[in-house]
Amino acid sequence: MPKVKVDGVEIDVPNGATVLQACELAGKEIPRFCYHERLSIAGNCRMCLVEVKPGPPKPQASCALPATEGQEIRTDSEMVKKAREGVMEFLLINHPLDCPICDQGGECDLQDQSVAYGRGASRYDENKRAVTEKYMGPLIKTQMTRCIHCTRCVRFSEEIAGVDEIGALYRGENMQITTYLEHAAKHEMSANVIDLCPVGALTSRPYAFEARPWELKKTLGIDVSDATGANIRIDARGREVLRVLPRNNDDVNEEWISDKARYMVDGLTKRRLDKPFLRRDGKLVAASWNEAFAAIATLNPGSSIGVIAGDMVDCETMFAAKKLVGALGSTLIEGRQTGMDYATDSLAAVNFNTTFSGIETADAILIAGSNVRWEAPLLNVRLRKAVKRGAKVFLVGPEWETTFGGEFLGEDLSVLGNLPQAVVDALSNAKRPAVILGGAALGRGGLEAGLALAGQFNLVRDLEDGTKWNGFNVLHMAASRMGGLMLGYAQKGGIADLVAAKPKVLIALGADEVDYTRFAGSMIVYIGHHGDKGAHAADVILPAAAYTEKAGTYVNTEGRVQWSDKAVFAPGDAREDWTILRALADAFGVTVGFDSFDQLRDAMIAEVPALGSEGLADYGSVLPSGGGSAAGQIAYPIKDFYMTNPIARASAVMQRCSAELLHGEDLAEAAE
Amino acid sequence: MADRYIEPDSPELRARWGNFAWTAENAEKAKDIVSRYPAGRQRSAVMPLLDLAQRQVGAELNTQGWLPIPVMEYIAAYLDMPVIRVVEVASFYTMYNIAPIGRFHVQVCGTTPCMLRGSDDLLETCKSRGMKKGHISEDGLWSFTEVECMGNCASAPMVQINDDNYEDLTSDRLNAVLDALARGETPKAGTQDPARHTVEPVGEPTNLVAMITENHDYRSEW
């Protein structure tokens, strides 16, 4: 713990800290462009200059200078002020003065820092450099004349994403940032470079010229595009969500989100269900809420009613639906839309127990049946970190392009019961072994085989440092999955139990992946927000709110309980889901025990107390013993990363990504 | 340098260079170069290999050679590294030609010592022979670049043509060299001053004259 003096104040800094970090610990703001906590240190913008004694009598780049015992650091001297002004003046030499037409305006590091640390005016009256625009795909808009060569985007794609696609060509003043031959950036996390870019060189293409940051209402939310539960900030103006940005949460998403989470929001205004519909003579006809409820009231299902929850619904909605059918005397509730029927007696056996930040420290990982890049891009980033620390990764399933190497062992589930000796050795010798089962490896005995491995390799153990390690993980793909399982949305035989029960009425809570032909005899009441597959099969459509339009509780695949706030109102006649379910209770003539959202939430927490506190729910560490044999060819459920949910399917941006990045269609660029 | 650009990727370029592969001789050399680096650090061989590839292309075209995109991709595949990293290196160093080049690559040094000794005349001479910065002359014989210091300041001004340096130039001497090259001859490289062998002092030494007769250095031998 070296002791350093920052502006005369002595502080202790951790070993290995840089001078910049020491200054931050002392509460001093150090301007910077190239330095970023999660990327390697480049030291090429020179904005973080400070005066350090002992050392050469000139300002030093604090981001790349280790803090050592007895240093005297000045951030407020005349030398530092002059140095910052000089660097800023040099940076602005070739930076265009186009802030009024730049999308970064108002949230631009260069703008803010030139006001805070720059000179009042430029002394440069030569011609400025101009750089041709580079094509980086449908998500990233470039304006490379604005680039200040911080290389954050290059370091992100190389270090975090693991796909070397962005580079710096030429040299000196002529340096240009580009993708190889201007191909589109194809990684699922590519748009994070937009947040990293400290200037307006890389901006969001779909959000181009939409709004200024100060016009936006910012709401804290949770992403529902996959089961990682990334923390997001929803930026809305009026009734429209304009963009989604990541929030910092080191335990979940660090500060990244996937491109789908970021860009599917334009789907929130397309193909929306904004009024109730009733099926009359085989056709869906618009109706009023009163007509819809009057029609439902005539159904008289009695206890012959079931609920299927979709992938994106919140816990409150699921709980309200459970209460509704419970009041009618039914327990037919199921969330696993595609017919999975794995045992859910122990939630620890279907949870990502290691946690995302924990998996970084694993030293041997076996992944079965998961295309992690598509099913949980944020986890893929963690796996890459683990491999960088020396972890060995083995995968079972058809080959996909990993960003961290790894060895594919075979495409059949039977490999789990018959691991090669090298893998057995690696897992048994590992201090922190982990197994990750994806959706494709849960059925056909896969979960039991995985649990058998957990026993064989002693995945649940106490580590030498006294902490507990649980290396058994299940990686889900639906944001509602863990919450649904906590609320009991699982039948023993999966959805087949509902089919067998032939319910008179089937309530579909935004369930769009269900094979509704199996429910031909049921009246299907669809409560959801998009006119997708579920709505097509429905007999009654009740328009509800999407994830940005209601407050809700979500539990991610780690069992982490998180709350999301309401950013905007649902369009048209659409209402929040719980109000619809409450009104249905009146239509059916039963009471559910709540009249307001707070009462609903209280009732839910009373029943499942773990949903009442933010953070990891405790499922215990006792795993069932498993056993048996698994067999069957693994097929990943996600065929198209950009088209996995009704919001994304409605989104023009996601459709374009799918066509261009996955199906290789060449889309002509409209003249701007 | 501002005139440097990467020859755009085109079907014609792919057709011409798409099946680039080491010649038997160069394959040996490449293997030898890669083996100089520790295991796992083969990427470090990217610079010598780019040079080797440029020379192989040059041998095929009878020029100094250049690096078409497919050739850079070949090197990337050979070293199992991302193509963008190869392109970064090739575009950074001006000794790699990233666009087609004429029979002779005339690189005139324009940095201060050469400029003081008359490099402006040399630039003028080149221009009068139809050379244009960053372009190939119409007869395909000359490519012309103005470069920064090549480290021949003691015999300034100088010009580098392909692998050889021609020093102590005047407009006439440069014309003589260029004429000889155009005729297919190989003029003597190095200083073009008949009074000089190499970069020894012209006439009597004027510096360190006291050292001629007696050693004043702290080392016993000088």
Automatic annotation (TrEMBL), chain A:
Keyword Nucleus: no
Residue span, 4Fe-4S His(Cys)3-ligated-type domain: 79-118
InterPro entries reported in the protein's UniProt record: 2Fe-2S_ferredoxin-like_sf (IPR036010), 2Fe-2S_ferredoxin-type (IPR001041), Mopterin_OxRdtase (IPR006656), Mopterin_OxRdtase_4Fe-4S_dom (IPR006963), NADH_UbQ_OxRdtase_75kDa_su_CS (IPR000283), NADH_UbQ_OxRdtase_ferredoxin (IPR054351), NADH_UbQ_OxRdtase_Gsu (IPR010228), NADH_UbQ_OxRdtase_Gsu_4Fe4S-bd (IPR019574)
Cofactor note: Binds 1 [2Fe-2S] cluster per subunit.
4Fe-4S Mo/W bis-MGD-type domain boundaries: 216-272
GO molecular function annotation: 2 iron, 2 sulfur cluster binding; 4 iron, 4 sulfur cluster binding; metal ion binding; NADH dehydrogenase (ubiquinone) activity; oxidoreductase activity, acting on NAD(P)H; quinone binding
Cellular component terms per the entry's GO annotation: membrane
Biological process terms in GO annotation: ATP synthesis coupled electron transport
UniProt cross-references to PANTHER family, sorted A to Z: NADH-UBIQUINONE OXIDOREDUCTASE 75 KDA SUBUNIT, MITOCHONDRIAL, RESPIRATORY NITRATE REDUCTASE
EC number: 7.1.1.-
Name of the molecule in the record: NADH-quinone oxidoreductase
Top EC class of this enzyme: translocase
Protein family membership: Belongs to the complex I 75 kDa subunit family.
Essential cofactor(s): [2Fe-2S] cluster; [4Fe-4S] cluster
Record's keyword terms, sorted: 2Fe-2S, 4Fe-4S, Iron, Iron-sulfur, Metal-binding, NAD, Oxidoreductase, Quinone, Translocase
PROSITE patterns reported for this sequence: 2FE2S_FER_2 (PS51085), 4FE4S_HC3 (PS51839), 4FE4S_MOW_BIS_MGD (PS51669), COMPLEX1_75K_1 (PS00641), COMPLEX1_75K_2 (PS00642), COMPLEX1_75K_3 (PS00643), PROKAR_LIPOPROTEIN (PS51257)
Automatic annotation (TrEMBL), chain B:
Keyword ATP-binding: no
GO BP annotation list: inorganic cation transmembrane transport
Names of required cofactors: [2Fe-2S] cluster
Keyword Protein biosynthesis: no
One GO CC annotation: organelle envelope
Catalytic activity: a quinone + NADH + 5 H(+)(in) = a quinol + NAD(+) + 4 H(+)(out)
Manner of cofactor binding, per the entry note: Binds 1 [2Fe-2S] cluster.
One function term, GO molecular function aspect: metal ion binding
InterPro entries recorded: NuoE-like, NuoE_dom, NuoE_N, Thioredoxin-like_sf
Signal sequence interval, chain numbering: none
CDD domains assigned to the protein according to its UniProt record, in alphabetical order: TRX_Fd_NuoE
Residues noted as binding [2Fe-2S] cluster in the record, renumbered to the chain: 109, 114, 149, 153
Keywords: 2Fe-2S, Iron, Iron-sulfur, Metal-binding, NAD, Translocase
A Pfam family of this chain: 2Fe-2S_thioredx
Family, as annotated: Belongs to the complex I 24 kDa subunit family.
The protein, known as: NADH dehydrogenase
